[in-house]
Amino acid sequence: MMRTRPLKVALLGCGVVGSEVARIMTTHADDLTARIGAPVELAGVAVRRPSKVREGIDPALVTTDATALVKRGDIDVVVEVIGGIEPARTLITTAFEHGASVVSANKALLAQDGAALHAAAVEHGRDLYYEAAVAGAIPLIRPLRESLAGDKVNRVLGIVNGTTNFILDKMDTTGAGYQEALDEATALGYAEADPTADVEGFDAAAKAAILAGIAFHTRVRLDDVYREGMTEVTAADFKSAKEMGCTIKLLAICERAADGESVTARVHPAMIPLDHPLASVRGAYNAVFVESDAAGQLMFYGPGAGGAPTASAVLGDLVAVCRNRLGGATGPGDSAYTQLPVSPMGDVVTRYHISLDVADKPGVLAQVATVFAEHGVSIDTVRQSGKDGEASLVVVTHRAADAALTGTVDALRQLDTVRGVASIMRVEGE
Amino acid sequence: MMRTRPLKVALLGCGVVGSEVARIMTTHADDLTARIGAPVELAGVAVRRPSKVREGIDPALVTTDATALVKRGDIDVVVEVIGGIEPARTLITTAFEHGASVVSANKALLAQDGAALHAAAVEHGRDLYYEAAVAGAIPLIRPLRESLAGDKVNRVLGIVNGTTNFILDKMDTTGAGYQEALDEATALGYAEADPTADVEGFDAAAKAAILAGIAFHTRVRLDDVYREGMTEVTAADFKSAKEMGCTIKLLAICERAADGESVTARVHPAMIPLDHPLASVRGAYNAVFVESDAAGQLMFYGPGAGGAPTASAVLGDLVAVCRNRLGGATGPGDSAYTQLPVSPMGDVVTRYHISLDVADKPGVLAQVATVFAEHGVSIDTVRQSGKDGEASLVVVTHRAADAALTGTVDALRQLDTVRGVASIMRVEGE
């Protein structure tokens, strides 16, 4: 069974993830050989700073010319862990053109240009695998596109960004405010110097686009994903959540509409009940809940980032792609045959938790309730509390279209008796 | 891309799982066609009672002659959901001999004869997939053998039997005794009339053998798995567990020894800390924790049994096997290249929680502590309580070899001052 010519791997990028990939390829070489059926050899490593000392990597393999590396023609698999759109995109398509399969960890690129990249892979009869692009080490892409290939997925609900989960968990457990929790995340290395991509939900939105596409066998682009960050979540929101028996998580939610004719994808902070399995996901961990017709509720949990965990996912793909090459086959490709439209956020059906500062006088509740009724939004519970002429009103709604809820809030702001809308948060996972 | 000749599927068994497989093949036919790249057709259904009305299944497809069905020669995939050793084993090998690939949900057969069946699949260039054999709908076999193929798994720790988890959860939450909880499980259909296979751990042991084999790329037979049932777990044990900040679960535990040179597999009830993710797995759900070098800690959670969930796993395999056939390839096969020895239970390193009934007089603790010391078992905590000349002593040990712990308990039983050993339970997941 064993052939002796090694499969040649080109590594693009040698940062936190790339260096772990190279390390494991060396230390686990015998295991990889046994599992693939042939040895794998690191044939080149493209980096930006060639002078940096890289332990365990032969300096002769290091190059700054990534393009020449992917064009060599003897490369079986290109592992792309550079990130970002360019030059990653051009390098991947060039790799396909020169006969290589590709393993990528690049969520931004997959979310933006997945369709074109998949088409290029098919055109050249090569594989494009990207387990590491979503939720780090957690096997998620493969279960969705293979294990559940005979099922119908209706919902994907997940914590897919470790930085924001660390911050929210810290706020929840210590009562800290957002800035204080962010500072600690930064100090501990969980947040980057510029945390925008994480805290504004861009990172999670890219993952939501990828997950929705795979789960529903349709095309979901990054622009299709509704996105709200979590920078405005306050300690008071956590207090409200606790009163509801909930906590707050930044969730990526991909849903098939009740009629099955469209899908939605969104990222925003939301209250979820404490007894929901996602509520107990601590620190920088990720977890993704999947609901399907036949399997029911599944959850996948693990480290969502980090060099070694992400490298684990990359290497799992590398083994699969190498096996495919030896067998003269390709793995399951892109599947977007359902071509379902992506509905806007207004069509999403969900619940709201709304805190209002109102005048403390008779008739306010009646006025507020009338506004909800006029917009067709049914109220689940109302809690009033007040002193010194000021009062607060907490309204939790039944499920309604997001557009109706937004319209309700806009109208509430117009009421003289409503001094302000203190907070609005969706309630999920019930 | 689309070819028109359908792939032909023979279904062996049409009970709870088989009827769901047939139903989904019909209702989701268009989706399956799109995902596979060709239509799949139910070409025959082998049953024991042909006269039974089976909604949605063409009576012309039904036969009692399973052997003739798998020998037809035009069958692409045989789906075996009969269970048990024979005739399933002979039917599967006959299927390979006649050119079919096989999808099986048969944990007992895989645990006992997996090696021979895999060898038969390889000999005939066919696939043997069995995601449904372990933990129902939860994608577990595929993540272990594919997603983690580039990683080194050190430990698999799981709740893989829903019946026993339902019973233990009921005991935990209501304070019920074992028999009362079992009766409720039986009444609700979670336990069979003869619950032996579940409550004595035979079912979980078969799954442990399969998981250990895949996780460690070695051969683990059912006889290699140490097994203790959970029929002797008492309400008092749950009380002790709560005092430890723990609950009790029936766990399947597969471990690589610290030196990496051997593995162990075992099934027994154990205390696990309440903050361990497995502690909050409720009702009949299953969950499996996987620890590996690079990925760290992963968990997979979902329904571990039932017709539709198991059918979901079967159909995921069916899609994969059909794709492989269209591509002229086979999926990743059996991998037992490490050939690690399976160590006996005595070599397992774990902790014990021991409750002793002792005479209430001076010197008893010193005597007991001496016995632990003589066997090289270090004590973590001791708690004494007593009245009226009787006393109890609860000892929690540090990690030690199971043989040393067993020897300690045997020696304690010999002490005049030890009236009895009220309970012994291992402590895991810390």
Automatic annotation (TrEMBL), chains A, B:
InterPro entries documented for this protein: ACT-like_dom_sf, ACT_dom, Asp/hSer_DH_NAD-bd, HDH, HDH_cat, HDH_CS, NAD(P)-bd_dom_sf
Entry binding sites for NADPH: K107
Catalytic reaction annotation: L-homoserine + NADP(+) = L-aspartate 4-semialdehyde + NADPH + H(+); L-homoserine + NAD(+) = L-aspartate 4-semialdehyde + NADH + H(+)
CDD domains: ACT_HSDH-Hom
One GO process term, biological-process aspect: threonine biosynthetic process
Enzyme Commission number(s) of this protein: 1.1.1.3
Domain of life according to the entry: Bacteria
Cofactor: a metal cation
One Gene Ontology molecular-function label: metal ion binding
Binding site for L-homoserine: E192
Binding site for NADP(+): L12, G13, C14, G15, V16, V17, G18, S19
Domain ACT, chain residue ranges per copy: 353-426
Pathway in which this enzyme or protein is active: Amino-acid biosynthesis; L-threonine biosynthesis; L-threonine from L-aspartate: step 3/5; Amino-acid biosynthesis; L-methionine biosynthesis via de novo pathway; L-homoserine from L-aspartate: step 3/3
Keywords: Amino-acid biosynthesis, Metal-binding, Methionine biosynthesis, NAD, NADP, Oxidoreductase, Sodium, Threonine biosynthesis
Active site: K207 (proton donor)
Family recorded in the similarity comment: Belongs to the homoserine dehydrogenase family.
Function: Catalyzes the conversion of L-aspartate-beta-semialdehyde (L-Asa) to L-homoserine (L-Hse), the third step in the biosynthesis of threonine and methionine from aspartate.
Stated name of the protein: Homoserine dehydrogenase
